[in-house]
């Protein structure tokens, strides 16, 4: 139990520190690298939560494809040079106040309003394996699965159409 | 596995940091990355509840959330690239052509 707590809080510290790093870094490339670290840490949490397929999916798709796309665009646009602070001077304190309220409220709900903190029941065998996910994807969740493929097609076509050069008329 | 409240607490903290990122930062790409952080926090909550309830449905939902996030990032970054082509700037304070 103690080892579990140490592992959890160590990883949670890395996750929160990299999220704060994303928030505070002046260079967009550093922000992207912090976010990659955050994704990898959350992926380790997924492994701890008996979701190995989702963990590797997270690393492959999120940290491996989405963040690389972000880095390409950052370097394409030269967005490392970042800009000044917000135009409205009260915006930053208001954001912190609202964020603080959200955090306090959520911690109150978790500490005082949630059910009893029980140790989880043991996971059924084959929980979180690719076989279990594939089984569900092709039986109960077949319709969302097919719709996702259409969504991916639409996103691909949309991204290409948006960045095509316009033909000059006349 | 620790009680689910620990994981939900971490998910809430990450979500709040992502929301703060959307509110505070001025660079459109960093705002987009903060949105991805919020999605990731929600994924963590889903997987934690899936494990606590011993049900695979939460993991299937995370599968779909990751797929939708990938599509959204592709289209969103294409939009940002297009905006940059005309304005040569991705500071969101400069994107006020629809104002007034």
Task: Using the coordinates above, name the CATH class of one domain in chain B.
Answer: Mainly Alpha
Query: Which class best fits the helix and strand makeup of chain A?
Result: mainly alpha
The CATH homologous superfamily of one domain in chain A is termed NADH-ubiquinone/plastoquinone oxidoreductase chain 6, subunit NuoJ
**How many separate helices of chain B?**
3
Quote the average pLDDT of chain B: 89
Note poorly predicted spans of chain B: none
Structural class of chain B: mainly alpha
Helix count, DSSP H or I runs of 4 or more residues of chain A = 6
Question: Briefly, what CATH class of one domain in chain A?
Answer: Mainly Alpha
CATH architecture of one domain in chain B: Orthogonal Bundle
**Helix/strand order of chain B, N-terminal first:** HHH
Largest sheet of chain A: none
Report what the structure shows.
- The complex is a heterodimer of chains A (170) and B (100).
- Chain A has 170 residues and is mainly α.
- Helices cover 72% and strands 0% of the residues of chain A.
- Chain A has helices at 2-24, 28-48, 52-77, 91-113, 130-137, 142-162.
- The longest helix of chain A is centred in the middle third of the chain and has 26 residues, at 52-77.
- Chain A is globular and about 60 Å long.
- Chain A starts with a helix and ends in an 8-residue tail after the last helix.
- Chain B is mainly α.
- Chain B has a domain at 26-90: Helix Hairpins, CATH 1.10.287.
- Helix content of chain B is 78%, strand content 0%.
- Chain B is built from 3 helices and no strands.
- In chain B, α1 packs antiparallel against α2 (28-53) and α2 (28-53) packs antiparallel against α3 (57-87).
- The termini of chain B are far apart.
